[in-house]
Amino acid sequence: MTTNKTATAWKDDASEPGRRLELTAEQNGAVTERWEAARAAHKALDAVMEGVQQALADSHGAKLEGRLHRLKGLKAFRRKAAMELEDRVPLESVVRKVQDLNRYTLVFDVKSYTEGVRHTYALLHERGYVIVPGSEQNTWEDPVHKGFRAAWQQPDGTVKFEIAFHTPDSFRVKTENHLLYDLYRSSRLRPLGEEAENTAESHEDAAKVVQQRRYSEIPAKGSK
To answer: Where is the region Disordered (predicted)?
Structure first.
């Protein structure tokens, strides 16, 4: 694995008190190089996904959402990598397995959702992409984060990207819930003693309740 020779060590100045996420120069070099490769690939992937969306727009109401977030930020990737390294995940594995640096959101009309996903699979296969093994996540039964996502790659594994599939309502609720989702997820970053831990758990529980109520109001997905 080659690394960015000019990279320096990195420290997250936005870490929670009591915890400092950081990367050594070697680690930061590898993380930065992987992110740069994703940035170099994103224009070609944009064209692929825009082609899929256009092909399914009339028949399935396909829309591409979240365009501003189609490339994960370098700082966010560094933070994620630092947390995995803290959990003793090998650096090579952190860099090799990441599959959401390039990520897209496809929204289909609720009555065309299932067929829209199937047609997306077929179109991507035609373009030479294959599913990353084990990447498919169906969370439609999850009360706080509904949807379906899967990662794709070129056969040689050099380019990976993730697609989240939503209906208009599930995407709307997902967007509204984003801050709450980050709140209860980030509660794991606060090892500040028993009192702070209890507060974090209370915030997490409250966020989950609100998210579940929002999702309970949207219609179920379906197929034609």
So the answer is: 193-224
Helix crossing, 178-186 with 194-215: angle to 10°?
150
Cα torsion for 129, 135, 136, 139, to the nearest 10°?
A: -140
The model's pTM is: 0.77
**Does pLDDT of 212 surpass 70?**
no
Q: Using the predicted structure, report yes or no on whether residue 215 has a pLDDT greater than 50.
A: no
CA neighbours within 13 Å on the CB side: how many for 129?
A: 22
Q: How far apart (Å, rounded) are the C-alpha atoms in residues 90 and 97? A: 11
Higher pLDDT: 187 or 94? It is 94
Task: List CB contacts of 160: < 8 A, sequence separation 6 or more.
Answer: 98, 99, 101, 102, 132, 151, 152, 153
> How confident is the model over 115-139, as pLDDT tens digits?
999 999 999 999 999 999 999 999 8
User: Which structure tokens are listed for 201?
Assistant: 């758990």
